[in-house]
Amino acid sequence: MGLNENVAKPLDRLAGMLAPDMEAVNALIRTRMASRHAPRIPEVTAHLIEAGGKRVRPLLTVAAARMLGYGGTHHQLLAATVEFIHTATLLHDDVVDESRQRRGRPTANLLWDNKSSVLVGDYLFARSFQLMTETGHMQVLRILADAAATIAEGEVLQLTAAQDLATTEAVYLQIVRGKTAALFSAACEVGAEIAGGTAVQVRALHDYGDAIGIAFQIVDDILDYCGVSETIGKNVGDDFRERKLTLPVITAIAAADGAERAFWQRTIEQGDQRDGDLDRALSILARHDALGSARRSALGWADRARAALGPLPQGPIRDCLSELAGFVVARVA
């Protein structure tokens, strides 16, 4: 998911506040992605991890812990864990989706091969569990293990729902909660948990991560149809070409007339895509204000994210988290 300059502003401020922590996290990532016996592992991992990502998820872990007054270092282990889980899922996703571009660069499966991407992803999952056990905190293990299972469920659900025009917005949200929001919410929740937050605070940060993760994914799905390739880090229309039923398409299908439904059946269900089909898809989306509807949904989830911060201590970190919710959806304002 690409982040433009507007979204980066609160992230940059947050990263500046938490710079010593993030330097330690980055050092952990570089050290723990190494392998004495398989040099391809750090090669493939570095290709993604050093590709200019904003480290949003580990930053949320660090922010949650520090906001609640944590003074130890276990949050750094958890932040590195979260980044490894995220990177592993990206490696696997690009194989499943047969993607050729990620963050504006060729994907690992294109530069190396599918086997390397899958196996290095497996290695990073294993590394993530090694890291989280070093905290000795059973609840943290439960949260991250549950998130890993939810992510896998979301990917399988997306696979089974793919190209099925009967897929509803409710199913879409279930997929998004798995593939994106689960790790956002877990990243926030483990930061609160390791800091000894109250049950109310832990839940608040879980809810914040869930809502901002959903908003993030909806915006990403909107930008696939109206973004700029250099900004979103992938080709505009990739979701259409990959026959993904994202929220804008689901909205348009629900309002489709007979001719439009036949179009979606041919292009999405049957995979018979021809020159000019992307332009026609854009025209249908515009006719039913499907992108506008998705944008309003994203704005609603951003509002939920900001509201979730209510029980948390006031201060510059909370302010940045609140601003981040707004800037995520500002990408499609």
Automatic annotation (TrEMBL):
It catalyses: 5 isopentenyl diphosphate + (2E,6E)-farnesyl diphosphate = all-trans-octaprenyl diphosphate + 5 diphosphate. GO terms for molecular function: all-trans-octaprenyl-diphosphate synthase activity; metal ion binding. Gene3D superfamilies: Farnesyl Diphosphate Synthase. InterPro entries: Isoprenoid_synthase_dom_sf, Polyprenyl_synt, Polyprenyl_synt_CS. Keywords: Magnesium, Metal-binding, Transferase. Belongs to the FPP/GGPP synthase family. Supplies octaprenyl diphosphate, the precursor for the side chain of the isoprenoid quinones ubiquinone and menaquinone. This is Octaprenyl diphosphate synthase. It comes from Paracoccus contaminans.
